[in-house]
Amino acid sequence: MPSLYSTKMSSKLTNVLSVVEQLEIQLPAGFAAMETQVAGHTFDAASLGLLQDNNGCVLKPLGKPECGERELNFYENLQLAEKSEDSNLLLPLRSFVPKYYKMVKLFVNNRQHTFLKMEDLTNGMRKPCIMDIKVGKRTWDPMASEQKRRVEEQKYLRCKQVLGLCVPGFQVYTYAVSKALRYSKEYGKNLDVDGFRKTIALFLNAQNGEVFKPLVFEILKQLYSIRDWFKVQTIYNFYASSLLIVYDFDYMEKHLKQNETHTNNGISQIPNGNIQNNHSTHFNLEKCPEYSTSIVKWVKVKMIDFAHVFPTENQSLDTNYIFGLENLIMVFEELMER
Ligand SMILES: Nc1ncnc2c1ncn2[C@@H]1O[C@H](COP(=O)(O)OP(=O)(O)OP(=O)(O)O)[C@@H](O)[C@H]1O
Ligand SMILES: O=P(O)(O)O[C@@H]1[C@H](O)[C@H](O)[C@@H](OP(=O)(O)O)[C@H](OP(=O)(O)O)[C@H]1O
């Protein structure tokens, strides 16, 4: 039996405090609108947002038919990776995306809808800091109409056209207030390159320009793995796909308090890693064993949103995605250098 949930949804978040709409949505028992959704389609008259259940899963609605079908195919292909002739590439890709369980049908507002059930990347985090970063200068797919191309090319202009990156939304917990601060796509649309850098620092809770380096280091490690994969894969083009970066501020705060090597402002005194600004190289992990802690449990970098994933045309690298990814890596590397 469907039950009535009164759900607070943030439809148009401002740069500090959200304008919150009170919507009443009929959802099946055991499901709620996802509290920590920071971007993408949310509940309104025209669309559904993501749901969460009580078992650490999120349910993403299929959305527009062509988009939904592509995303469903993408996840189902990955599920069958062992049997694919591309298993050597698809199996590692699985570790870069949320665990996918199955397709489920649920009634929302008395109408049946199809959802993709997958792992909630924020599950178990007390104070999840979440940033959605859309990757690539080109965020329209080969089937896009002229109008869709034009619209996409005009958005997030000063950031997306230079870095191949944009921020459609994020939330961050800080030392100053106990509630998460939410930033909307309107905030993201006003960013230029410098604003993007500052936004990443803000998201990481940088203090006087200094970040908690083990956190940045772990994010970089995961980004490097994704980049390594993109440097060899020629199966897919990922248009309008995002990287979701998630970390638990609660864990970070506790970790900082416990650790003797920290200064009064709580920022690590561990020396910097050895940065080489050549794109084909990585930080030298062996030189920084102190960074390889249990941190991996509370920091996640995963690829999400595969509604515009297409097979490559000439078995070429996805240079559009790689360009954005390289720039993102550089922004994090700069933070390690400080
Ligand atoms: N597996 C997941 N775990 C946790 N949060 C998730 C997960 N998948 C999506 N989200 C949340 O939902 C948001 C939107 O996800 P996604 O980009 O897949 O939706 P969308 O509606 O297709 O977006 P768009 O409007 O950009 O096409 C993300 O920014 C994130 O906050
Ligand atoms: O970043 P913004 O300004 O929110 O723009 C949205 C974003 O580009 C989404 O990826 C897109 O959904 P699709 O991926 O489904 O195309 C959506 O199209 P829509 O409004 O037609 O749903 C856009 O409005």
UniProtKB/TrEMBL annotation:
The lineage of its organism: Eukaryota, Metazoa, Ecdysozoa, Arthropoda, Hexapoda. Keywords: ATP-binding, Kinase, Nucleotide-binding, Transferase. Gene3D superfamilies: Inositol polyphosphate kinase. The keyword RNA-binding does not apply. One of its GO terms (molecular function) is ATP binding. Its EC number is 2.7.-.-. InterPro entries: IPK, IPK_sf. Belongs to the inositol phosphokinase (IPK) family. It is an enzyme of class 2 (transferase). This is Kinase. SUPFAM superfamilies: SAICAR synthase-like. GO terms for biological process: inositol phosphate biosynthetic process. The gene is IPMK. GO terms for cellular component: cytoplasm; nucleus. It comes from the Eukaryota. It catalyses: 1D-myo-inositol 1,3,4,6-tetrakisphosphate + ATP = 1D-myo-inositol 1,3,4,5,6-pentakisphosphate + ADP + H(+); 1D-myo-inositol 1,4,5-trisphosphate + 2 ATP = 1D-myo-inositol 1,3,4,5,6-pentakisphosphate + 2 ADP + 2 H(+). Pfam families: IPK (PF03770). The keyword ATP-binding applies.
